[in-house]
Amino acid sequence: MADHLLDVKDLSTYFFTHAGVVKAVNGVSFTLERNETIGIVGESGSGKTVAAMSLLGLIPDPPGKVVGGTLMLDQRDLRTLSDEEMRAVRGNDIAMIFQDPMTSLNPVMKVGKQVAEAIVLHQKKSNSEARRMAIAALARVGIPDAPRRAEQYPFEFSGGMRQRVMIAMAVSSNPDVLIADEPTTALDVTIQAQIIDVIREMQFEFNSGVILITHDLGVIAEIADKVMVMYGGRTVEYAPIDEIFYNAHHPYTWGLLSSLPRLDASKKVRLTPIEGQPPNLLFLPEGCPFVGRCPHELPQCRGEWPAEETVAPAHGVHCWIPVDQRLALRAELPHFKEPAA
What is the Cα–Cα distance from 166 to 93, expressed in whole angstroms? Predict the structure, then answer.
């Protein structure tokens, strides 16, 4: 069997503060292949972005530190690389589309120069050649009249166009892994669909693996091949995309799905929010972090983190509720009662 493009095992990233240790990512594992998209989904504060920043070596130290795990990219352990070697990896082997393009782009530098700067750094091109490649990258992501737009500043672009600039910058060096952190946040649904199409086109053009970070399961359904559901810094469920939508096993995943409208139902299904608030990462319970919000909590849920249980091929879940009981509970939820037509 071929080696994985990216293989993350037991990644743990903590922040050591005066108030205590924040276990932002706690034993997360996943794999990524070429031309594959993994969606990382969960509420704000679940550890999605911290996991991605750990891959790039961008955790501020102090107070943060990757305290455990292996991060293998094409048989190279990223944790063993020097700062200089990691700078060569960022943008070249692993690129990231950051969540807010307005704060990620330099407001006083023309967008063409910002894209060209990455090309000069990673591909060692001359300034004139880098500018030509930058204009081509802007055109490739759907920015019209790219030579003129390259001479403009970020404030002269709409939110969707700024996001396209970020994508052009990220893919300018043909990265093996592309991380998209909430790439459609604050965009209307039409522009969201366009951005997803651009990411998909870039993925196929460069044969890259994509890590899509979002809280929106609708976006996940559109692009992902497999899904990792995170909560409280842990992976609670991990499965191919169809398994997550039609055979979810963790109560937290049920909660996320129940907050989505069912377009395939013959009658209206009331949306059900997840009661309560995400846990304080300074005071996580010893067991499942979803305790206190889970309506099906068992006594052992507070005592120990459950081992991974395989419920289908490539589908793992961490839950103390017996599988037969989980299936019965799920069948009674309004979101799951009426199967798709």
Answer: 16
Is pTM, for the whole model, over 0.85?
A: yes
Q: Report whether the peptide linkage leading into residue 62 is cis, meaning its omega lies within 30 degrees of zero.
A: yes
Give the pLDDT of residue 265: 60
**In angstroms, rounded to a whole number, what is the distance separating the alpha carbons of residues 33 and 26?**
23
Please write down the long-range contacts of 2-6, taking CB distance under 8 Å and 24 or more positions apart. 3/74, 3/75, 4/31, 4/32, 4/33, 4/72, 5/32, 5/33, 5/34, 5/36, 5/73, 5/74, 5/176, 5/177, 5/209, 6/31, 6/32, 6/55, 6/71, 6/72, 6/73, 6/177, 6/209
According to DSSP, the residues that pair with 40 across neighbouring strands are 213, 228
pLDDT at 339 over 60: no
The CA-CA-CA angle for residues 320, 325, 328, to 5°, reads 140
Cα separations in angstroms, 294 against 255, 321, 324: 9, 11, 17
Q: What is the pLDDT of residues 205-247, one digit of tens each?
A: 888 899 999 888 888 888 899 999 999 999 999 999 999 999 9
Separation between Cα atoms, residue 49 and residue 86, nearest integer Å: 18
**Domain locations along the chain:** 6-224, 253-337
Paired strand residues for 97: 180
Contact (CB, 8 A) for 258 and 334:
yes
Tens-digit pLDDT profile for residues 137-185: 898 888 899 999 999 999 999 888 888 888 888 888 888 999 988 887 7
Report the C-alpha gap between 25 and 45 in whole angstroms: 10
275: DSSP letter: P
Q: Both tokens of residue 33?
A: 């292949």
* CATH 3.30.950.10 fits domain 6-224: no
With the CA atoms of 136, 138, 139 and 142 taken in that order, what torsion angle do they form, in degrees rounded to the nearest 10?
A: 160
- Please provide the distance, in angstroms rounded to a whole number, between the alpha carbons at the two ends of the chain: 38
Residue 331: pLDDT over 80: yes
Q: Is the pLDDT of residue 2 over 60?
A: no
